[in-house]
Amino acid sequence: MGEEPTSEPGAERPGLLHRIGDLGATVGRRAPKKRSTRLILQGGIAALIFGFLVLTVVTQWSELREEGVAFDLIWLLPGVATMLLYYSLSAAAWGLILRLLGSPISPADAQKTWAQPLLVRYIPGSVLFVLARVLLAEKAGVSRRVSTAGIVYEQAAAISAALTIATWFLIAHPDTQDLWFRWLPLLIVPLMVTCLHPRIFGPLSTRLLRALGRAPLPGTISFGGVLTVYAVYLGLWSLMGIGVFFAARSVHQLGIDDFAIVAASQMIGYLAAVISAVTPAGLGVRDAAFAWAVKVTLPSGSFGVGAAIAIAVRATQTVVELIYVGTVTGLSRRRLRIEELEARAAAELPPA
């Protein structure tokens, strides 16, 4: 269901952006070329950073135990349950965005198209993650340009909501008191949300799509819809903050008054991963930023304890993602088998 180029036969040779648009409309139908060197380099950066965190915990383990680091499984159970709910509702939010763009899909397809590309994030680079989402959405009946626009709305809303939650923490953090740019989120958040206004996003997307040789979007999300999506992601990040708090509590004593800092630390880790973009699923970068931020909750201010908490949170989140993706994939396959059996049974019925 890729869109055809808008240029007529016999016209001048299309420009670079137009050729990129043609590539984007056809990629996925042919096996992509390997980029092993880039993958090794990007994966190496992630492994180096995350390995540093692990090394910090290992070399300081005896000291960390004295500072209260001890694994307690019981706290992981509500953390896992909360994170599973977060992922399920995030997929529903993806379905809401597509519905607001005029391309609704079923709740089951929303779960499938959002869940299955999650594990692709662990392959270095973000292109494959986006491509996997676009291809799955296309199979569900959503055109590539609409699903791509949906990803833009989703990421902009998620980043804006994360910045909103983390802003007060960035401003008040002891390590940022001498940095003037700690005030920038107060400007960036309203600017990002405003850029999603249909009078701005519409013309910008149309100009870009035409430069790529694609047709304009069939519609944009109203500003009221944009604010609704933004509010949804505020709620989603708050829910994830609860899950992260329980995962952090499983390795270190934390009070309920530490919840806001832990939740904001998770947002800072997410934003660091967005900025880095190069590492798979923000591995290493996200965890290091989270460890730096969450150490504020600790009496010792130890980065080593923060690293232990970050590793516990990362491990919990990875396990939850495997459970979630496996469950959605299993249910999707079961649904397909049932549909095939029903279609076969209907074909075998004698005519009325």
Helix content: 55-70%
Low-confidence stretches: 1-8, 27-35, 39-46, 56-68
Q: Compute the separation of the termini in Å.
A: 36 Å
- Global mean pLDDT: 76
Residue share in β-strands: under 5%
Overall tally of structural domains: 1
Number of helices: 13
SSE-based structural type: mainly alpha
Rg (C-alpha, Å): 23 Å
Compressed to H and E, one letter per element, the order equals HHHHHHHHHHHHH
Largest sheet: none
Shape: globular
Per DSSP E runs of 2 or more residues, the count of β-strands stands at: 0
Structure description:
By secondary structure, the chain is mainly alpha-helical. The protein has one domain. 69% of the residues lie in helices and 0% in strands. The protein is built from 13 helices and no strands. It is globular, with a radius of gyration of 23 Å. The chain starts with 15 loop residues before the first helix and ends with a helix.
Summary?
The chain is 69% helix and 0% strand. With 352 residues, the protein is mostly helical. Helix 4 (76-100) crosses helix 7.
Secondary-structure topology with pairs:
Layout: H1 16-26, H2 36-59, H3 61-66, H4 76-100, H5 107-115, H6 127-139, H7 144-172, H8 185-195, H9 198-211, H10 223-249, H11 259-276, H12 285-294, H13 303-348
Annotation keywords:
single chain, 352 residues, mainly alpha, 69% helix, globular, disordered N terminus
